[in-house]
Amino acid sequence: MMRRQGVPPKRWPPAVLAVIGLGLILAPVAFGMFSKAPRGASMMTSFSPFMTRERLDGFQTDLRYVGNAVNQGQQAISDTGRAPGGDRNLARVAPQFHTFARQWRAVDADMGGMLVTIKANLPNYQAVAALPSFRLFPWFFVIPGAILLLLGAAGLARAANWRALRWIAVALGIALVLAPVGFQMFSRAPKGAQMMSTFKTIETRHHLRRIQSYFSEMAVGQGLVQLQLVPALRHAGLSAAQIRARYPALRALDANWVPILNDMTPMIAAMSNNIDNYQAISSLPSFQLFPWFFVLPGVIVIVIALLGDRRRGRGAAERERPRLFNPVNQGVT
Amino acid sequence: MTNRLKLRLIAAAVTAIAVPVVATGPALAAQQVRGVFHIGSGSYIRMGLPNGGYFSNPYSKSSDKTYTPISSGVGGGIRAGVAQNAPSPAFDRHGNSLANSIITPTSFTGIRFGVITTVPPTFYLSGNRLSGHLRNLYAEWNKQTFRQGGIVSGTYNSATHQYTLTWQTKVHGGPFDGYTGHWHLQGTVSP
After folding, report:
1. How far apart are the C-alpha atoms of A276 and A282, rounded to whole Å?
2. What is the model's pTM?
3. Do the chains contact at A258 and B50, CB–CB below 8 Å?
4. 3-class SS of residue B54
5. Is B40 helix (H, G, I), strand (E, B) or coil?
6. Residues A77-101: pLDDT tens digits?
7. Contacts with B132 (C-beta within 8 Å, 6 or more apart), sequence order
8. What value of ipTM does the predicted structure carry?
9. Can you say how many angstroms the Cα of residue B133 is from the centroid of all Cα atoms in its chain?
10. Touching check for B146 and chain A: CB below 8 Å?
11. Which residues of chain A neighbour B50 with C-beta distances below 8 Å?
């Protein structure tokens, strides 16, 4: 203790801390986080009603309703078309229905594939959703940065205070290192990166246009079943009860069509409304790097706060050694 | 009073009279049309697809399914100077619009859509040319609201009170992002 008294602390450790603090404050500005992070939060909120296993299962069920109706519609045309005499109405509907059935195969493959992909990414979405809101992200940089800047400035202004201040810096450094651990960022952030990577091909205007065209084709197909095929089957001599018994999927599609629309259109709306949000958030650095944005400054702060002072101590001791052992100083002569 | 002062006073008086007249000139030229624009036979909406072509509405009563005919609702049609807001609730549990003042809710792919105005629309007549501010017209469908208003234009026959109005509005956001609503209204205007 005696050795340290009277030796001015080095000025570079608080200066470096102030620079790191400034860096942390400026990082969100440089990355455009203040505008982009709220967009990410918005996207997560918009997707939340759809990103549940139940809801995704529901979309797959919706596709099955259409798929089953397509299969049974073709079967009905085939069965009834074989009846003697045939039927003019059915003959008129048949080519349109076959066209729709062909379109449907492509729609089902693409939309079905998309749903499988989204479903596989459900744990990734949930991991990101469990992180603190995106809106807070810039502040996770700015607040510790501001504290570091203040500590550094205070250390520079009153060097004598630095020894006490540096322990606050150490505590802040430890907090920065532990924050990603506390938020489970090391496991969640890579999942977020994976989710963003998956959505790269989904959240595009081009893909939206395709999904919109599928919706249009499905609507036409449902109308074809309900307004043309079923009446044509009736005209061909089948009773309503016979149609229901032999081709229950036709009835099931009709009964479930409005719920399918209720399901599908908000999902398409969410996709559509979040393309810009996705683009904004995807232009941020990879999610995988985020824990390190806290850990690295944290470690540097700890090292500087501790070693900076130790080096000062050693240097001072070395400088003081000759003085201490000077016989004049010891009063020997 | 000097000649110069007289001239100044005359100039000031001319300016005081001329400026308001010039400013209100267009309004005087275009007469505001009041009353109810009944939506009669031949009125329709078509939804233009983002990549060209039109959305085919299987539930349309038209033989060409890309046209969805519409007709006046219980309010008689579009009321100039009156906002015809959405009722509360705006939808039934299936997502059918309950807004039945302007048009009779009409099936679009199996769910009925209605039309509302949130700001009083205004219409002007200049000769037989009709124009109007119908920016705050919205279509309501499947528990969603789409802005479909715009600057409208058309014709008006003062003798028969027959009118036509046409406009188109691109949808921004939502499931129909990039679609364009092509609206055509025709019928009579009653005071």
Report:
1. 10
2. 0.79
3. no
4. strand
5. coil
6. 998 876 555 677 888 899 999 999 9
7. B33, B80, B121, B122, B123, B124, B151, B152, B153, B165
8. 0.78
9. 6
10. no
11. 209, 212
